[in-house]
């Protein structure tokens, strides 16, 4: 018997072509989301979302400025909670985009399998985050030297010392992935005001081969075995496989960037599933990204943060980060089993700019490859 044909629900006509046109600007994150969704859904999605927005919000052409006014009127909350500023226009724009996507699904302009390729940008939060207890900043995590001048800091005068000390941070654990967003001086009128963002990924290359070049590793980080997936949940990240290597990199971890609702939070990482299965590791019931063997922790994740800022960045912690660590003995076993040498790709951003949005700051960049010594 033939299957029943799907019911096709027609989309409503555009009610106001001029108002729904490009003069209507969405908030930045929603504008980016709309562009990305349009590539997979339909190029008509942007117009559809703006059409629906004109029904949900009066005078949407003034919406972005009115939304900005909400942010300017905002005063500090008394409990220093993690809160988000969102006015009526932001809420209406989100609703319009959701309704537009739903309309295209119901009218079968796009199939759910196609939309699944970018559904992660519609995710609101990671449900696993409520199960995680953040610690204070570990004492060994410090990428800012207050004794340097601003010129020396921006020129990375201390970077070789930081590289040399990384492998020897901890005699028991090796950090195989680190994301750090660190700031100093923002709470006080005196002293240097600096910010840095650090991302470090450990990987392997076959023993006896040439050392990996920075160009090879950058290529791997952009589109190869060291590249990140997007907005994955903690509980599903260990199941993901890394993209194929385009050079010689042997991945140790799979990485996920996280940008829920346009609010960036630290990247996460999990041990590559093939390694965990090959070593017959058991999931740690107390750590969504951790593993145990014979009752002993051998892989652990560490979420950390400092207190929330009481000044211009009052919605964010002053410093925040994530670590994925493997016992050094287990790391040596991995290296011997798969015949690899261990290296790390380090990417560091720095700035001394004040009183600017992050996207307007003058960020200095350094990236490099360093050999990991397990001894």
Number of helices: 10
Mean pLDDT: 85
Helix-strand sequence: HHHHHHHEEHEEEEHEEEEHEE
Share in β-strands? 15-25%
Oligomer: single chain
Domain tally: 2
Poorly predicted sequence stretches spanning 5 or more consecutive residues: 13-21, 76-82
According to DSSP, the number of beta strands is 12
Computed structural class: alpha+beta
Distance between the termini: 68 Å
Task: Output the radius of gyration.
Answer: 24 Å
User: For the report, how would you describe the main beta sheet?
Assistant: 9 strands, antiparallel
**Helical fraction:** 25-40%
Task: Give the overall shape.
Answer: globular
SSE layout:
Blueprint (H helix, E strand, L loop, with lengths): L27 H13 L4 H12 L6 H11 L14 H19 L5 H4 L34 H5 L4 H8 L6 E12 L9 E13 L7 H10 L4 E3 L19 E2 L1 E8 L2 E9 L1 H6 L3 E2 L7 E3 L2 E10 L14 E8 H11 L1 E12 L12 E8 L4
Parallel strand pairs: 3-5
Antiparallel strand pairs: 1-2, 1-10, 2-4, 2-11, 5-6, 7-8, 8-9, 9-10, 11-12
Helix pairs in contact: 2-4
